[in-house]
Amino acid sequence: MFARAVLAQGVGMALGAVALALTPPERPGRLGVALAVAAVGAAAVGRFALRQPPWWGPIHLLFLPAVVAASGAAVPPEVYPVGFLALLLVFWGTFRGDVPLYLSSSAVTEAVIALAAEARVASVADLGAGVGTVAVPLARRLPGVRVDAWERAPVPFLLCRVRARALGTRNVTVHAADFWQAPLGGFDLVFAFLSPVVMERLAAKVRAEMRPGTLFVSAAFECPGWVPERTLVLADRRETRVYVYRL
User: Fold this and answer.
1) Over the stretch 36-47, which tens digit does the pLDDT of each residue have?
2) Staple partner for 46: which of 52, 96, 108, 134, CB 3.0–4.6 Å?
3) Rounded CA gap, 26 and 100, in Å?
């Protein structure tokens, strides 16, 4: 995924260089036109030629203009590696195509807690738990339920674990691991708020590993070709849909 991003930017820069060469030197805004061509070119190549996930579009559009803007600002050079490291620790794995950090709303949390309580589940898995916006409140409100959360980005993982310990939730375990490695067969309910890009692969994993009668709950994104047992439309800002599937 990182190689494809670099390739997309390289093609965009080449297109920008061509646009710069073809634009008369005396024309106002010559550099701006070249930057726009480079940014749009990189985004288009990444999305349509290299099949990158949709969230790469804004990254490609903003990358080169941001570099040019930063080069003209009085920013100490050490800020750049520090900033890069900070982003890497938060969005670990995104450059490889993993799902970026995107927090669930409180309405999604309440919906998952209500579903778990209604179904009287004994165990819940939260895949890509982020900072624990679902896993930690669920474990706290349902102390008899075992909650396992998977998050491999270092900063969100640490924040999730710190939240769990600070609130004294002893029934939640936070795994610093890729959620694709999570064994789903031992859980009564599995929750995910990920991306449409991974739903087909995740649906295959769920069907292969989860036991009949258990619940798979997905916020915002459907499993392709699956018919949910029910769909909840939440009253949050995004009017999130929560899809409830029974295996």
Assistant:
1) 999 999 889 988
2) 52
3) 43
Hunting for tokens 């080169």 — which residue is that? 64
- Cα dihedral across residues 210, 219, 181, 149: positive or negative: negative
Extract the tokens encoding 115.
Answer: 């579903």
Longest Cα–Cα distance of the chain, Å, equals 73
Tokens of 80: 């750049």
Backbone angles phi and psi of 241, in degrees to 5: -95, 135
Between CA 200 and CA 141, with CA 172 as vertex, the angle to 5 degrees is: 100
17-75 confidence digits (pLDDT tens): 898 888 888 888 888 888 999 999 988 998 888 887 776 788 888 888 887 777 766 66
CATH superfamily of 106-246: Vaccinia Virus protein VP39 (3.40.50.150)
Q: How far apart are CA 40 and CA 36, in angstroms?
A: 6
The token pair at 118 is: 């209604």
Question: In terms of C-beta distances under 8 Å and separation of at least 24 residues, what long-range contacts does 43-47 make, across chains too?
Answer: 43/8, 43/12, 45/7, 45/8, 45/11, 45/12, 46/4, 46/5, 46/8
Domain spans of the chain, in order of start: 2-75, 106-246
